[in-house]
Design goal:
This protein is mainly alpha-helical. It has 2 domains: 153 residues, Orthogonal Bundle (Tetracycline Repressor, domain 2), CATH 1.10.357.140; 133 residues. The protein has 14 helices and no strands.
Length: 303
């Protein structure tokens, strides 16, 4: 019997789900939420259509940053288990399409933001996209273990942009909201990176657990958590918010810091799925949502 000819399975073509995956929708959900809270905490409210457009622009800008991040890191993503099935390393999309998609989203989001709100909001949106793509992705991430510390600024822009889209100006409260997310990012991300440090090592990415080891990373998580907690209660201490936010921020931060110190005291050589690192990572996401929800409740429920 003659041998059957070998057939080669072609990669599936990209569809809308791959385009959505390029935008990193899980990250985008947090971006949209904090931006909306920044907008709702502002002293004045825009017409609903303007507010919706501002949040849409921030979501599109975040999606553009995610797409451009994956365009640039396609080769790196192929070396890590948790990212190998993304559209580019999996072969469902070519890099040029991802580049065009990301640039198109970025340009459209910034132009629409200026037309719908004001130039300062559009400028901040453009800076946040460029910061994530150029400063974090291209420059910091492959070069220094402090990548997520400085690069965390990119994810801290949304509440500031939401506020500026409404008011057209910057004031102390949105700057403090920026600082809270900036300081929250290292303990949140390092708690996760402890579990996937082998991926980063294989891809030669100098994340802190790879470069400094587990004990140093755990100590840094505790240190940043304390500083973040101080920033979180600062709006209340400075009289910028009321008691709803103040009590919520204090209670949430006490729990966060206690969990961070449990991480610092952990001496296990391999983080456990049920260990303090995993619990802190899960709580850190809840912490930010609850903190910003308390901010909105404080603004709208108190006289």
């Amino acid at each position: 019997m003659p041998a059957m000819p070998m057939t080669r399975t072609a990669a599936l073509p990209a569809d809308w789900r791959d385009l959505l995956a390029l935008t990193k929708p899980r990250v985008m959900s947090l971006v949209v939420f904090t931006a909306l809270c920044g907008l709702l905490a502002a002293p004045v409210m825009p017409p609903a259509v303007i507010g919706f457009t501002a949040i849409l622009c921030i979501a599109l800008g975040a999606g553009a940053a995610g797409a451009l991040n994956q365009w640039y890191e396609a080769d790196l993503d192929s070396k890590m288990r948790r990212t190998a099935n993304r559209p580019l390393p999996a072969g469902r999309m070519d890099r040029q399409s991802a580049l065009h998609f990301g640039v198109g989203l970025a340009v459209f989001s910034v132009l629409l933001m200026e037309l719908a709100t004001n130039r300062l909001a559009a400028l901040l949106l453009a800076v946040s996209i460029l910061f994530y793509v150029i400063v974090y992705t291209m420059w910091l991430k492959p070069r220094t273990a402090q990548n997520i510390v400085i690069g965390g600024g990119a994810g801290a822009f949304p509440p500031l942009i939401g506020w500026v889209a409404v008011t057209g100006s910057v004031s102390l409260l949105p700057v403090l909201l920026f600082a809270i997310i900036f300081l929250w990012t290292p303990p949140h991300f390092w708690a996760l990176s402890l579990f996937v440090r082998s991926d980063y090592a294989a891809a030669n990415v100098p994340m802190l657990p790879v470069v400094a080891g587990l004990p140093a990373t755990r100590r840094q998580i505790a240190i940043y958590s304390v500083v973040m907690a101080i920033a979180a209660v600062a709006p209340w201490a400075l009289g910028l918010t009321g008691w709803i936010y103040g009590i919520s921020a204090a209670a949430l931060s006490v729990v966060f810091v206690a969990m961070a110190f449990a991480v610092a005291r952990n001496t296990a050589t391999e983080p456990s799925q049920m260990g303090p690192e995993r619990r802190l990572f899960g709580f850190s996401v809840f912490y930010l949502f609850a903190l910003f929800l308390a901010l909105v409740a404080d603004r709208w429920l108190l006289p």
